[in-house]
Amino acid sequence: MEQLGDELSRLGWGKYESACYHSLVKFGEMKASQVAARIDAQPAKVYQPLNSLHERGYVKVRSENPKRYVAQNPRYVIEKEQERFEAESDEILESLEEAWEVQIERGPDADDSAWVLSGQDGMNTELLNLIEDAEKSIIGFDTRLAWATRDVIEAIEEALENDVDVNIIGTPHSSDTLDRLDESGATTNISDNHNRSSYYIVDEKAVLLNIGTQEATLSFEDSDIAGIILDDYQTHEREQIEAQT
């Protein structure tokens, strides 16, 4: 409860709005002067925040002389704030997407042919985008497959349903995920080498490459480099098959 004011401030509420509502939730119905006393503020500081909360439906007013304020149910307040946040987020997203589409149509500069992604989350996000764009094939050697998100795994399964050829090598700790993908129609294999680079090749041109255990991942399109990495995959795949026979 003591952190409620801070949490409301993170939603964009003003300092005194947060403090006034928190006080009414905690102590119940009060006059403005009592609210001010509870939050250790001058009475003049609380009138505008209380009126703002009343106009938004977050505080109810009982009687007029003097007004007595009552907090609206917090569940109602949070649901309304969520609706507001989602509406504002949709507007922001629409503006950002329009700007993004404009720069995509202009085409990348020569220096922008490769992108550096940070951490596992960055790799998963870019991998999801590549998988969703795949038309023919997805080749992967992934020592971190056990940490792939559910969205990534489901996207691979959807690609399989769309007749995309999927071949993935993982490590023993990702055997459950490999079994699931195998049942969905992917060709899978297991390697004990945890120190190799992880990579994905999509449609023999798009490459996602993580060097060893480093946090940075490269994303780029280059058919020649994709071909070299694909040769490495096929060589390692043959070695694994031979080792098992």
From TrEMBL:
One family name in Pfam for this protein: TrmB
Organism: Natronoglomus mannanivorans
Protein name, as recorded: Transcription regulator TrmB N-terminal domain-containing protein
Domain Transcription regulator TrmB N-terminal: 8-74
